[in-house]
Amino acid sequence: MTISIRPLFDWSFSWAALFFLGFANNSLAHANDWPQWMGENRDGVYHETGIVEEIPDEGLKIKWRVPISGGYAGPAVADGRVFVFDYKRDSGEAFNNPGQRAKLDGKEHLLALDAKTGKPIWEYEYDCPYSISYPAGPRCTPTVDGDHVYLLGSEGDLKCLKSENGELVWSRSFKKDFAVEVPIWGYSGHPLVDGDMLYCMVGGPGQGVIAFDKNTGEVKWKSLDCKTGYCPPSMVTFASTKQLLIFHPDGIVSLDPTNGSPYWEVPLTPLYEMSITRPMIEGNLMYASGIYSEGVLLKMSSEKPEVTEVWRGKPKQAVYTCNSTPLIVDGVIYGVDTGTGKLIAVDTKDGSRLWDTFDPTRRGEKRLAKQATAFITRIGETDRYLIMSEIGDLVMATLTADAYTEHGHMHVLEPTGEAHGRDVVWSHPAYANRTAYIRNDKELVAVDLAK
């Protein structure tokens, strides 16, 4: 195996300057960072102020473009750096067949860039033969936690690096250490850091989810007899009880995050084991869904860790998401439906559909776009949203129970992937420093959002 770390930036300036810049970065980090998938709290909310109120016809300013390699992993932004995870293919035929694994040789590769300029700071890579379907590259966004950045590659390579210079701290291999079969579409559950623990979906008897010591990689506990699925773990607190939520191919489970013991479980079985999108919460309501026909709204108890079922989705009701996680705001679920390809608004009271539109997914489309995707991000506590479409457009829109109202869009980059015979971009952007960081399989682009 080849592992290499290459610093790509000259740090030869005074210690005083280093101290000053470190202080400045730390003082701004909380407000400006997007350190993991779906943001600081993994809730898809972008909290910066002073950004544009619409996207003009001529588009927004592009700050920089940097060449990268393939992958679905969105960028992460922390402490003045952008981290982007990709795959450098050396040999083998890359093709997209949902039922067949492609065999490639290459390297998974993490690149750390200066957030302001796009200039490389350091890079880290390791040999990683692929045997997965849709083999463009890694799926999991890097998770940045203080001085460390955590990677989970498509073949189950879990690594902890120093975020300052890319030095390897520890490494685990799900295949070698836990004898698991890699899911056909690769490991996709973004690692979750909470306290001193790092939670990962691994898969297999008694080890569906594993909690690691984030500092050493030591296994702290294992839990659940289940296949891996593709959904990241998440953490919530209800009934004065912290709960680790796991959506695996056969259901949704709440675990005690200290030891993995279960609190409650609800069956939900998406087709093809495609438990992908994170169960989302507003108030005491939780919605979880899978492709085409599986969706359930749950009510979480304030008295003890348990839930009751409110309704299950029916044909032409609810919204059944796949590659992009829905948001729930003011009693309305907003998500992109895999059966129709439309952005749909759903009433949490009964699952009825309030409106739908193709505009943020396949602009101008009049027919079904199977598994179309758009990544939805709420702007603070407003009814405005930034939406990244699968055709490479950044959209700003108001979403309410009454209507979808657009405030401009711009084409940022080309859709370089392929799905169901059409070109797509399936990567969640990062929003930080009043900038949208957006990638495809060829470049990472920084779009200026400042007013």
What does this structure look like?
- A hairpin with a 4-residue loop joins strand 31 (393-399) and strand 32 (404-411).
- The protein has two helices and 37 strands.
- The longest helix is centred in the N-terminal third of the chain and has 18 residues, at 15-32.
- It is mostly beta strands and 451 residues long.
- The N and C termini lie far apart (48 Å).
Break the fold down into its secondary structure elements and pairings.
Layout: E1 3-7, H1 15-32, E2 45-46, E3 62-67, E4 76-78, E5 81-91, E6 102-114, E7 120-127, E8 130-132, E9 143-145, E10 148-152, E11 157-162, E12 168-173, H2 174-178, E13 192-194, E14 197-201, E15 209-213, E16 219-223, E17 234-238, E18 241-248, E19 251-255, E20 262-267, E21 280-282, E22 285-289, E23 295-300, E24 307-312, E25 327-329, E26 332-336, E27 343-347, E28 353-357, E29 374-379, E30 384-389, E31 393-399, E32 404-411, E33 417-419, E34 422-424, E35 430-432, E36 435-439, E37 443-448
Could you give a short description of this structure?
It is built from 2 helices and 37 strands. It has 451 residues and is mainly beta. Strands 1, 4, 5, 6, 7 and 8 form a 6-stranded antiparallel beta sheet that branches. Strands 2-29-30-31-32 form a 5-stranded mixed beta sheet, with no helix packed on it. Strands 3-37-36-35 form a 4-stranded antiparallel beta sheet, with no helix packed on it.
